[in-house]
Recover the amino acids of this structure.
């Protein structure tokens, strides 16, 4: 059974977070947790929270065994962009975009629904 968790509008740039997400794609949950715990990035901390939520959803809602869970799909989409201003030289104003991400993690135990 496949379950998922989503973190919407995470305050991290999508391109930065995708580099960390590529490390855990297709791995088992225990391997992915070990990789994320030993990767010192903001993205790894956010992805770990989403992964733990997806595992909790699978265990509590679908009675899955935590040792059998594997990350089937995981991706990061761009979220809304917060447009801020930054004062520049000679009286100019530059736009400073604060990019956000939607983090999605699917876990499965490769068993069919009865």
């Amino acid at each position: 059974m496949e379950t998922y968790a989503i973190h919407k509008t995470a305050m991290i740039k999508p391109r930065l977070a995708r580099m960390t997400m590529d490390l855990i794609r297709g791995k088992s949950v225990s391997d992915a947790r070990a990789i994320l715990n030993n990767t010192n990035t903001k993205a790894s901390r956010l992805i770990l929270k989403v992964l733990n939520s997806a595992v909790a959803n699978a265990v509590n809602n679908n009675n899955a065994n935590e040792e059998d869970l594997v990350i089937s799909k995981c991706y990061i989409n761009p979220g809304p962009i917060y447009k801020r201003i930054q004062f520049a030289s000679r009286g100019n104003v530059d736009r400073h975009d604060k990019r956000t991400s939607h983090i999605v993690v699917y876990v499965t135990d490769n068993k069919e629904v009865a």
Q: What stands out?
A: The first helix runs from residue 14 to 24.
